[in-house]
């Protein structure tokens, strides 16, 4: 096991539903420590750039329009196997297929408005973190608990 970082986003539906605290609390309970947090309203260019890998997908236009529809919470989470752990806590993309008690099962509306984003590999996590946070915005600290 090794300490790793991943990028998490609470999507506009999660902010709108008022579950920011619940989502961050769950990450903390699961050993994922927030080391950077900022709220933002993504521009179209930022959302298109972030999801560029999905550019050719039929849902790309809707996804960009959803991700720019309201504020999001951008976070860097740190912990043992943070990338995989975050994906596990989020659950499947489609909440109908997500395991019980995952964030998407608990809070998501549908396959698009699915409350949270998490990087899908350690390499992508590095790129996604750098997309939103300069290294100086990431705080080093230890949990005392
Ligand atoms: P994410 O990147 O947001 O963490 O989600 P993911 O890895 O579980 O899913 P991915 O395949 O990367 O898709 C990115 C986001 O696009 C929206 N989506 N809509 N309408 C559709 O069929 C569809 N499929 C995907 C979702 O918001 C998904 O999280
Ligand atoms: Mg993805």
Automatic annotation (TrEMBL):
Residues 3-140 form the Nucleoside diphosphate kinase-like domain. It catalyses: a ribonucleoside 5'-diphosphate + ATP = a ribonucleoside 5'-triphosphate + ADP; a 2'-deoxyribonucleoside 5'-diphosphate + ATP = a 2'-deoxyribonucleoside 5'-triphosphate + ADP. Its EC number is 2.7.4.6. One of its GO terms (cellular component) is cytoplasm. It is an enzyme of class 2 (transferase). InterPro entries: NDK-like_dom, NDK-like_dom_sf, Nucleoside_diP_kinase. GO terms for molecular function: ATP binding; metal ion binding; nucleoside diphosphate kinase activity. One of its GO terms (biological process) is UTP biosynthetic process. ATP binds at residues 11, 59, 87, 93, 104, 114. The keyword NAD does not apply. It comes from the Bacteria. The active site is at residue 117. Its cofactor is Mg(2+). Belongs to the NDK family. Major role in the synthesis of nucleoside triphosphates other than ATP. The ATP gamma phosphate is transferred to the NDP beta phosphate via a ping-pong mechanism, using a phosphorylated active-site intermediate. This is Nucleoside diphosphate kinase. It comes from Anaeromyxobacter diazotrophicus.
